[in-house]
Amino acid sequence: MELAPVLAGLEARDPAAVGRAISLVENGRAGFEELLSAIHHRLGRARRIGITGPPGAGKSTLTEQLVRRYRALGLPVAVVAVDPTSPFTGGALLGDRLRMERVALDPGVFIRSMATRGSLGGLATATREVCDVLDAAGFGRILIETVGVGQSELDVARTADSTVVVLVPESGDAIQTLKAGIMEIADLFVVNKADRPGADRLRQDLEVTLGIRAGHAFRHVPAHHGARGLSPSRGADQAPAGWTPRVLATVASTGEGVDTLVTLLDTHHAWLEGSGELTARRRRRLVERTREVLTRAMARWVSHDAAVEQLLQDRLAAIEAGRASPYEVAAEAIELLRPGSRV
Ligand SMILES: Nc1nc2c(ncn2[C@@H]2O[C@H](COP(=O)(O)OP(=O)(O)O)[C@@H](O)[C@H]2O)c(=O)[nH]1
Ligand SMILES: [Mg+2]
Asked: Mean pLDDT in the chain?
C-alpha cells in the first residue's frame, strides 16, 4: 500500500479515501499500523461523543439530530455505529443508515457501521483506531453510537471524551442498569421519548440515584456549590471534582431538547479542558493504546511463527491423547520463542 496518497486523501477529507483508510484499519490489513502511526501527530482535534443505551431508545434518531445541529454550525461530523451484541444485525444497521440517508448525502457527514473485527484485537480497539482515522480527516465531531449497556459497550463508550446514556420511560429497569457500571461512565443522561408517560418519573429517579436531588451525600459536589476544577486540598489520586452528570429530557423524533444536549456537550467539553481531565484521559488512553498495540503485535508474532505453528501441529495428538497438557505445549512454544522464559 502506498501511504502518501491515502494521507493526502484523508487531508482532503475525500469520502472514498476515508472509506478505504477505515476498511484498511478495521480489517487490520497490511499497512494499517503504518497508516495509524503516520496520522498520530494529527490527532486530538475531534471531540468524540459516545451515545449508548438499550435498543430502540432513540440513539440513532438523536444522533441524526446532533448531526444536523453540528452541520448547521459548519462542523464536519462522522458517525460510527457499533453493534457488538451480534455480528448478524446487518439489518438493524442498514435501517440506521437508511434513517440517516437525508444527512448522508452531505459530504460533510461520514457514516460508518462496524460489527466485529477478526481474531486479533477487540472491537473497542478497532473503534478507537477508526475514530483516529476520522479525527485525522478533520471531522470535528465523532458520534459513536453503541447498542446496549453490557461490558463490551462500556469498553467502546470509554473511547469517547463525553458519554451520553439514552434511556426511555419503557426501560423500567433503567436504575438497575445504572448500578451495573454505566453510572461511572455517563457524563449526560438523556431521557428520550419525553412525549411518553413516565418520562418525568424516570428523570426524577435518575436525579435521586445520581444524588443531584435530595440526599446527594455519596456524589461529588454539585456544580451549583461553586466547586469547579481542582480544589487545593484534594489529593492527586482522587477523582476530579466538579462534574455532576446532567439529566435532560428529549423528544428525538421532533428535535425537542436537542439544543440543550448540544449545549451540555459543550459545557462538558469545556469542563474537561478546564479541569485538566481531557489531558489526563487522553494520556491514560495513549498508555493503554501502546500496550494494546504491543499485545496485538506479540499475538500476531506468535501466531505467525512457523516453528511455533509446527510445534502445535506436532503436539496436538499428544494433547488429545492426554500425554501432554496445553500448558506444557505452551511452555514449549515459549521456550522456542524465548529460551529461558516461562509461561
Ligand atoms: N415517541 C417517540 N418516538 C421516538 C423518539 N425518538 C425516537 N423514536 C422512535 O423510536 C424508534 C427507535 O428509534 P431509534 O433511533 O432507531 O433507536 P435506537 O435503537 O436507540 O437507535 C423509532 O421508531 C423512532 O422513530 C421520541 O422521542 N419519541
Ligand atoms: Mg440505532
From this structure: 82
Q: 178-201, pLDDT tens digit by residue?
A: 666 677 778 999 999 999 999 999
Instruction: Return the residue whose CA atom lies nearest to atom 10 of ligand 1.
Output: 58
Give the residues surrounding ligand 1 with Cβ less than 6 Å away: 55-61, 192-193, 195-196, 251-253
Per-residue pLDDT tens over the stretch 39-57: 999 999 999 999 988 888 9
Check residue 343 and give its pLDDT: 66
Residue nearest to atom 13 of ligand 1 (CA): 58
| Cell reading at 14 | 475525500
